[in-house]
Design goal:
The chain contains 20 helices and 4 strands. By secondary structure, it is mainly alpha-helical. The protein has one domain. Helix 5 crosses helix 11. It starts with a helix and ends with a helix. The model has no long low-confidence stretch (mean pLDDT 82). GO terms for molecular function: xanthine transmembrane transporter activity. InterPro entries: NCS2, UacT-like, Xan_ur_permease. It is a multi-pass membrane protein.
């Protein structure tokens, strides 16, 4: 008799099948996993060596968080086939913190650690907040996340930022970036984009699933051939180095950044709830309140570990949930093995140095797809919302997106408000989330918990193949 769905989750494939299946999960998430440390590291003006370390730390913490989620200690972990990665939802707030000198990288880590502790504490109660986050709210938030990140992808495609800061006679000055918008760089970014689109159109199965990663590889080869990518730092990097806690120093803790990251944590955990419910449908393993609480505690513990090991908040990656549905392989031990592979990659500085060496124009071509797909996921969730008979939903989306665009199109809009609030006000994602939750509650009220669970499952199912 064939194994029942519950047995399939606990099945242990032989090693010859386990490793390729685990590598498949790693490859599907790899490009998204390394994007956030690249964004934050370059926004902070870190050295190439420090950015490479951020990438190593991120891969290492990805592995830790995945192991916690799939095979964690008692009371922690959903124990379903989940791969954990840094959430894009935290990028906007962290960029705002990075732009605040008294917060900086150590303040980001302090807020991440505090948010992880907050997540551990509130995990059992978070499902009660589901009625605050119907698809009209979550879809709007994810749409704004994607639109906000597009600025990063576009600047990558242009070759960095239009201006650069450098010291002249001991005084920092801002100067035009001569490489920005150069034709060779734009050509490489376009080449990467076309490779990805071609693989998506004509590739099948696994090839289509890793189109972004293959596009980055193709663009890197072209950049290397044109002399625009240099491997000196890769050659100089050691083969092995541990990822030690608090590599950059002891974290600092600031009230407004902590409150901001806790709001992000709530949004991330609500999204995780939807992913867990969708994964339960895919695997056939029912999840009750206790199982959901275990999964959310793993989000909190993973985020806490992220702050300790020099990286950022973690959540389940939707593309890997989609991969479970596509392949039909439901064993959690596949993603356990994937977590081990991520741990090993995090201990290999040459891998991180290679990623850091990829020119920004190459990443730009991929970023347009990667970040655009985040926005498309939000649009896909919004497609499940009833706009025809309930036009109030249109106003929820319209006003929330408008607030979310303020920091993007008018960075000085809030300059006369208290400086301590800037990490909150300069994050379009947080503004959109707060406005969407408030307007939905005013216009639509709050539904039942059961209705919220059903809507969360439908929304996650709409997003799982992106």
């Amino acid at each position: 008799m064939p194994a029942n769905p519950v047995d399939a989750v606990e099945a242990r494939p032989p090693l010859g099948k386990l490793i390729p299946l685990a590598l498949q999960h790693v490859l599907v998430m790899y490009a998204g996993a390394v994007a956030v440390p690249l964004i934050i590291g370059r926004a902070l003006g870190l050295s190439p060596g420090d950015i490479a370390f951020l990438i190593s730390a991120d891969l290492f913490a990805c592995g830790l968080a995945t192991l916690v989620q799939c095979a964690g200690p008692p009371g922690i972990g959903i124990r379903l086939p989940v791969m954990m990665g840094v959430t894009f939802a935290a990028v906007g707030p962290m960029l705002a913190m990075a732009a605040t000198p008294e917060v900086g990288l150590l303040g980001i880590y302090g807020s991440v650690i505090a948010a992880g502790v907050f997540g551990l504490v509130v995990a059992p109660s978070i499902s009660r907040l589901l009625p605050l986050f119907p698809p009209v709210v979550t879809g709007t938030i994810i749409l704004v996340i994607g639109i906000s990140l597009m600025r990063v992808g576009i600047n990558w495609a242009g070759g960095g930022l239009p201006t650069v800061t450098r010291m002249v006679d001991g005084v920092p000055g801002t100067f035009p970036n001569p490489a920005y918008g150069g034709l060779p760089g734009l050509g490489i970014a376009l080449f990467v984009l076309l490779v990805i689109l071609a693989l998506i159109k004509w590739g099948t199965g696994f090839i289509a699933n890793v189109a972004v990663l293959l596009g980055i590889v193709a663009g890197s080869v072209l950049a290397l051939f044109l002399g625009l990518m240099h491997l000196d730092r890769v050659a100089a990097a050691p083969w092995f180095a541990p990822v030690l806690p608090f590599h950059f120093g002891w974290p600092s803790f600031h009230l407004v950044p902590i409150a901001t990251m806790c709001v992000v944590m709530v949004v991330v955990m609500i999204e995780s709830l939807g992913m867990f419910l969708a994964l339960a449908e895919i695997t056939g393993r029912p999840v009750d309140g206790a199982a959901l609480a275990r999964g959310l505690r793993a989000d909190g513990l993973g985020t806490l570990l992220g702050g300790v090991f020099n990286t950022f908040p973690y959540t389940s990656f939707s593309q890997n949930v989609g991969l479970v549905g596509v392949t039909g392989v439901r064993s959690r031990f596949v993603t356990v093995a994937g977590g081990v592979i991520m741990l090993i990659l995090g201990l290999l500085p040459k891998m991180a140095a290679l990623v850091e060496a990829v020119p920004q124009v190459v990443l730009g071509g991929a970023g347009l797809v990667m970040f655009g797909m985040v926005a498309a996921t939000g649009a896909r969730i919004l497609a499940t919302v009833d706009f025809r008979t309930n036009q109030k939903n249109m106003f929820v989306v319209a006003v929330a997106v408008g607030f979310g665009m303020i920091p993007l199109v008018a960075p000085a809009f809030f300059r006369n408000l208290p400086h301590a609030l800037h990490p909150l006000l300069e994050s379009g994602i947080l503004l959109a989330a707060l406005v969407a939750v408030l307007l939905n509650a005013v216009f639509n009220g709050l539904g039942s918990a059961e209705q919220a669970r059903s809507e969360a499952t439908a929304a996650a199912a709409a997003a799982e193949h992106v």
